[in-house]
Amino acid sequence: MEWCDWIMPLVASRYPDHCAVLLAGSHTRGQATVQSDVDLIIFEARRRQAYRESFTYDGVPIEAFVHSFETIAHFFESDRERGRPSLQRMIADSWTIEDHPHLASIRKEAVQQLADGPVAWSNPEQQRARYFLSDLLDDFESVTNRAEGLAIASRLYEQSIEFVLRANQRYIGQGKWTIRALAEFDEEYASRHTMAFELYYQSNDRRAVIALVDDYLAPFGGRYFDGFMLGKR
Q: Which of 167, 176, 139, 142 is nearest to 155 (CA)?
């Protein structure tokens, strides 16, 4: 497919005020499947508020992220603070469909922010995350009801990855990016994580999950209960 020839008629008709266009997502990373949508980042010079929309064009699902160069900077800052660099990843891996002089600096900033990592947790933020992960692990270790165990495991899967990544000042992900982010940090951890939870789901054997999460917590003081305080003034 000639992306430019296919995308530009859509952009011209739907976004007449555009000044730059990027193709992003799985198609640019070589990971697209038959069900993958097409991610577009549309720049409009005078847009004050960014938005996204989903629609079908020529039988293909489209996700469009519409920004100005100013709103991109705001979203970069927000994504870095929350530790989930959705827009930075999209722009860093994007292909230019319609160029603009500002695009090179925006892509450079996206790549730099990915390399720098998220804003570091403060000590209170880290201790709070450590406490709630410990609490969840305690619940998982003692649960006797299978349905409740599955519910706890689902939360533990993501919360433990978030802890080990943010505590090491690394970005987290969402959905499929959760395990991808862990693999980018430590492939052995990602492999252990997958095998430990798969073992629990298949056989109800929770020992590998417990050992794994304890290993995540160990460099930061291990499980945390005694002395935790929240909200006291």
A: 139
Tens-place pLDDT, residues 43-69: 999 999 999 999 999 888 999 999 999
Contact 66, 47 (CB under 8 A): yes
Name the CATH architecture for the domain at 3-116.
Answer: 2-Layer Sandwich (3.30)
Nearest to 97 by CA among 19, 191, 195, 165: 19
pLDDT in tens, 179-188: 999 999 999 9
The C-alpha torsion from 187 through 190 and 192 to 193, rounded to 10°, is: 170
| DSSP type of residue 223 | S
Q: What is the pLDDT of residue 5?
A: 86
Domain boundaries defined on the chain = 3-116, 123-220
**pLDDT tens for residues 140-150?**
999 999 999 99
